[in-house]
Amino acid sequence: MAILLGGIILLVSLASVRWSSAAGEESAGQGAAPAEAAQPTGHWFGAWVGRPGGWVDQPLEAFGGWQAGLPGLRAVLGSGLLLGIGCTAAMTLFGQSAWRFGRGFLVVFSLALLAYLLAGQVFVKTYNLEYALWALAVALAIANTVGVPDWLRPAVQTEFYIKTGLVLLGSEILLSRLLALGLPGVFVAWVVTPIVLISTFWFGQKVLKISSPSLNMVISADMSVCGVSAAIASAAACRAKKEELSLAIGMSLSFTVVMMVVLPAVIGLVGMDEVLAGAWMGGTIDATGAVAAAGELVGERALEVAATIKMIQNILIGVVAFGIAVFWSSVVERRGASNVGWGEVWKRFPKFILGFLAASILFSALYASAESGPAWTAESIGVTKVLRGWLFCLAFVSIGLETNFAEIRQHLRGGKPLVLYVCGQSLNLALTLMMAYLMFYVVFPEAAGVAGR
């Protein structure tokens, strides 16, 4: 269902990009000049898709202000309507009642809207407290105080929302990014990441002796690959509990807020070159948005390099999910069996990764196929990226509504998950900085000049 809904959204968005072709004027003694190449001029329903903006004193400012007629409200309601219809249709095909899901969806979407509004307040934005943190906080407060009513539970679909969002994310991972920094970028993103992932998992099992291997793996993947997206994919591959996923995401979001402020400060203090700084931040800060924010604090070159490294690293989501599925079914849960068939691997493999890869390949091909490819894909992604953000926010709300503090306290007992995250991230910071320096300034010194332009 996630692949189906995500694919439909992407294809409809591509088909909705508006085009125009301007014909040249006839001049005296000459025929008509050939028409210019058609160019994208907008999106048919782009004006109906959006999120709340920033505000200072009145929340209505996030929609453009009451006096202006709240122009942003149409885009927010349009996003809710589009996703509500799509998700309800998908859940109906999956066997759920459209009425039961639809009424619950209104509440979940309203909580997601509240999270966006809280994150958009100017004072809050100063501290980079993103919508994901507010969505979790609001939903956790509800779940662990008044509780979640039974009629709301059909719309609490964490995996469906996040997997559909990840299919949309695939369209943003263009393979051309892989070539932008060449081999140095690949080494920083693809060599350090598996080393940190494997080392952290081994450390958690052999040294810290964390009782839950799935919690260990989710934290390791979250911290080493790309934060929440990798946590969701790895949790599906190793069948982690909702509470384990919630704990990993909570730690990731908390450390992301700290790192996106501390790393630029350290970089400025030591006078680090922007190319090296960008590679370091791109390979260590979990969330793509946080990477961009931290890169912008350092400089334009740092922002470009950091965002590119993070995009290259994001491509690993599918590879990591497949590797975890194989490892989990053949080693962790083999229970004395002599061998495990590929059928079991396929059974636990997160199928939405196929949608993620298909979207990436499709949009990468379109991007490179024609002169207007970059503009065409950009128009489409501009809309689907907003919908993807809403789906992620719906997922964070759902995670909070499904999470019990008592379960989280049980996993935090002894502080081992926190120690695991701190030790793993420390290793990640050290190895990424070392690899970035070696690749950009020792092995491929010319790459630093290319990246800086």
Mean pLDDT: 83
- Strand proportion, as a percent range, falls in under 5%
The radius of gyration is 23 Å
Shape: globular
Stretches where pLDDT falls below 50 for ≥5 residues?
Answer: 22-35
Helix content: over 70%
Quick one: biggest sheet?
A: 2 strands, antiparallel
- Distance between the first and last residues' Cα: 43 Å
Largest sheet strand order: 1-2
Give the count of helical stretches: 22
Number of domains: 2
* Main structural class: mainly alpha
The ordered string of helix (H) and strand (E) elements is HEEHHHHHHHHHHHHHHHHHHHHH
Write down how many β-strands occur, each being a DSSP E stretch of 2 or more residues: 2
Characterization of this structure:
The protein is an all-alpha fold. It is 72% helix and 2% strand. It contains 22 helices and 2 strands. It has helices spanning 2-15, 71-93, 98-120, 122-126, 131-143, 158-170, 176-180, 182-190, 192-207, 213-226, 228-238, 242-270, 274-284, 288-298, 300-314, 316-332, 342-348, 352-369, 373-402, 405-412, 416-443, 446-452; strands at residues 17-20, 39-43. Strands 1-2 form a two-stranded antiparallel ribbon.
